[in-house]
Specification:
CATH class of the largest domain: Mainly Alpha
Order of helices and strands: EHHHHHHHHEEEEHHEH
Distance between the termini: 37 Å
Number of domains: 2
Mean pLDDT: 96
Structural class: alpha+beta
Number of helices: 11
Helix content: 40-55%
Length: 278
């Protein structure tokens, strides 16, 4: 096998560029664009408000050490309920804000968040663990990359809703794909297989690549590269990879576009892959 260990995904330097593209996009929207449905329960305005919430919440917790309403539960399910309630309350309140004021607040808080993220030691201890990867403690670069994927995929949802070109360039999208793939060991945690079993994943396109899950005594480990004689191979079209990991595809839709060969039982878990909370 020609497999290599995973390397850190450094994204803090990308926050300013991603925010610049967001502000340019929002500044170009008409009133009807702001009211377009982007998700089943959210409009473009609601997603923009959620992005503002992400900025101020991370600044409050990380930079200022203020947690606000702390999470009191212990399970991932309880965390999902808690965050969904916070998100709902914030979005409802922000429907009182005008688009120009929302853009102004996003610009100002986005700049502050970019500065904060770039001030962190990427190899230090993260304040927030990446729960969708099954971690109870994470390295800072992973938490930062997780936050980057949040900002990226919500901007992409807005772009899809208003018919604007996406942020699917390799420089901006490849780190998203690489970060989302880190969800696979946790996704496959209940998939039983003999030691040294390998599952090959191929995300197509310039922003994609090759990854492999390898089974050992402690579970599944993610590697990069091409494996020899994998038990199965999963091919994910690059343009929809982000939707797979952010609940943007139903399992039925995912089965229509994701190709799999080999052991069908080991292919099945990929259709439940999730790299978001809530």
């Amino acid at each position: 096998m020609n497999l290599e260990d995973l390397q850190p995904i450094i994204t803090s330097h990308l926050f300013p560029l991603l925010d610049e593209k967001l502000i340019e996009l929002l500044d170009s929207l008409t009133q009807s664009d702001w009211d377009r449905r982007a998700l089943p329960k959210w409009t473009v305005r609601d997603i923009a408000a959620h992005l503002l919430d992400s900025n101020v919440r991370r600044l409050s917790i990380g930079r200022d050490g203020y947690w606000g309403v702390p999470f009191q539960g212990s399970s991932v399910e309880e965390l999902n309920v808690f965050l969904n309630q916070l998100n709902h309350e914030w979005v409802q309140a922000c429907r009182r804000l005008s688009p120009p004021l929302l853009v102004k607040l996003l610009r100002e808080t986005g700049q502050q968040l970019s500065e904060y993220m770039q001030s962190l030691d990427p190899m230090g201890e993260a304040i927030l663990a990446v729960s969708w990867a099954g971690e109870e403690q994470s390295v800072a670069w992973f938490d930062i990359a997780r936050e980057y994927t949040e900002k990226w995929h919500h901007q992409q949802q807005i772009r899809d809703a208003v018919g604007q070109p996406g942020v699917l360039t390799p420089a901006l999208y490849a780190p998203v794909v690489a970060t989302f793939m880190r969800a696979l060991p946790h996704t496959y945690r209940h998939a039983d297989a003999e030691n040294r079993t390998v599952i090959q994943f191929h995300v197509t396109g310039e922003s994609g690549g090759l990854w492999a899950l390898v089974r050992d005594d402690s579970g599944w480990k993610l590697k990069t590269g091409r494996a020899s004689n994998p038990a199965c191979e999963v091919i994910i079209p690059g343009e929809i990879a982000w939707k797979l990991f952010t609940k943007g595809l139903t399992q039925e839709a995912a089965r229509r576009v994701i190709q799999g060969t080999g052991d069908a039982g080991l292919i099945e878990p990929v259709f439940t892959a999730t790299a978001i909370v809530g």
